[in-house]
Write the structure tokens for this entry.
Amino acid sequence: MSAHASSPAFSQPVSADEAYRIAKDAYIFCFPLNYYYRTIHAQVLDPESKKTIGGFGKWRHDGLATPSDKDTTMPNNDTPYSWAWVDVRSEPWVLIQPPADGDRFYSSVWGDLWGHIVDQPGSTFDGQKGGIYLLASTAWKGEVPKEAARVIRGETTILGTLTRTAVFGPKDLPQMQKIQQAYQLMPLSAYLKKPAPHAAAGPGWPAWDEAAMTNAEFFRTTNFLMQFVVPNEKDKDMYDRMAKLGIGPKGDYDPAKFLPDVLASLKKGIADGHKEIVEGAKTAVDSSKFYGTPEFMGTRYLDRAVGVEAGGIIPNVPKQAFYGQWTKDASGESMDGSKARYTFTFPKDQLPPVRFFWSLTMYDLKTRLLVDNPIDRYSIGDRTEGLKRNPDGSLTIYVQKDSPGKDKESNWLPAPNGPMSIISRMYGPDDRILKGEYKFPDPVKVM
């Protein structure tokens, strides 16, 4: 049976089987748009939200993360976050990045609503001296100020940053915060001290409905968000297919217009697409293929969606920070803090070869958030105070829910009382890491 159009504007009819295939692929394709809108709504559009940053063009600077921080999955305590979003529909914005001090890792990572990482000015690519950058969409054509290092372009007219500034423990917080407070954003007209162009009309932002991430309303939210998209020719086939269901920049998607069997197939496509993304995120052990520019990601829509689900909003690219993930131990068994203890052991002289630093961070597998523990330690690494080597020069990290004993607590990464996920982060990775020549040791179950 085919879908029925109650309006001449509705797209061409499709069978239940075709509706399933399109819905599944479209869900995977559009997942980042909706995922990002969830955060934008909470941080920018809802003044009553506890997560608000006060609107577009505003900064919110975070300190050290705790288990109560739920803005993004897999938060870290290595590089406290600075959040900001800009709407570049009417004009570009200017980012002014301050100098860092010494050899501190810092990076202003910018992404568009597709989950692309479009640029990351900072230590790895630009050094420690700071700079001026223009933020715009790929559709913008205008004069670039001579002093701007480059234009940062995204495929949507809303861009966001998760800027990261390394901190070397609680004592270093004041110095790190001085750098955070020096990040600046302003419209291009304000920077040039010229009259502002006519502001883009308010789009009538819809309230966020968490249920709509996995039900038939998902594509209604998608259609609203399409007004902020600058379409890329590489996605034409996907747009053509989605149009059959009324999904797209000028789509008239309405679940009520479908016959029951077609709607049921569409819902199943959404459910199966979501399951594929979530399952992919659980086994995403190599960050090198999940994050990057539109050119790098190409039409690997599933990888893009898995990257968003696994790494959250605006993650680092591998050349800046190379990630690894463990949900299973070296024998292939799922790691569970209620059932076992584990160790990571680095042989002598085989610590990760990095320019800046490395860490291991513990997360609850289900929520992918930090885990409460009695010593308030959420990550461990080469900057952890008091870390002890073994007599032979090797280094052992103890992963368990209870203390391994006072003499070993300096090397203890507390685990949840249940399934876990451990993320390694290597900042400023050496080529040996990027080429796969260096392998992080796997966790071993302690008998």
About this structure: Confidence is low (pLDDT under 50) at residues 1-10. The chain has ten helices and 17 strands. The longest strand covers residues 354-364. Residues 326 and 422 are 5 Å apart (CA to CA).
